[in-house]
Amino acid sequence: MDSFTLMICSHLVGRYAQTHEAFRKFKGGLAPWQRRRIVDLFHEHLDGELKLETLANECGLSVSHFARSFRRSFGTSAHRYLILKRVEIAKALLSETNYSLVDVAAQTGFSDQAALTRTFSNVVGATPAKWRREQSRHRSFVEIPKHQVLQPHD
Fold it and tell me: How far apart are CA 126 and CA 119, in angstroms?
């Protein structure tokens, strides 16, 4: 009788309990407050001068644990995430302003226009100038004064 009761209980717990799925979903990733802090830090330091050690310290984790947790939470490495964010912001600047490529490169943390073009082409598959021309067929530019910095859309 005891084994039958255990079998029924085991079946009921396995079939109807959902706690094991909830634990699997969040296992190993960054906590929500850590994700928000890291995203904020990346937006403040688009130039890439932010070290992995600094990011890990902000989260209270070791560098190796942070790197694993970051990859689990964001699906990519911290460096690749930063590159993709810079390209995303560059795309917004290219499509919504008439900034030169040099200005876009400077605002998105690239060392020069060549670095922007090389990275943009690798990620998007087209040069920034070509991508802008294709986008301009569908949109009109908004004139923004040179001294004003455009904030990226979230």
Answer: 10
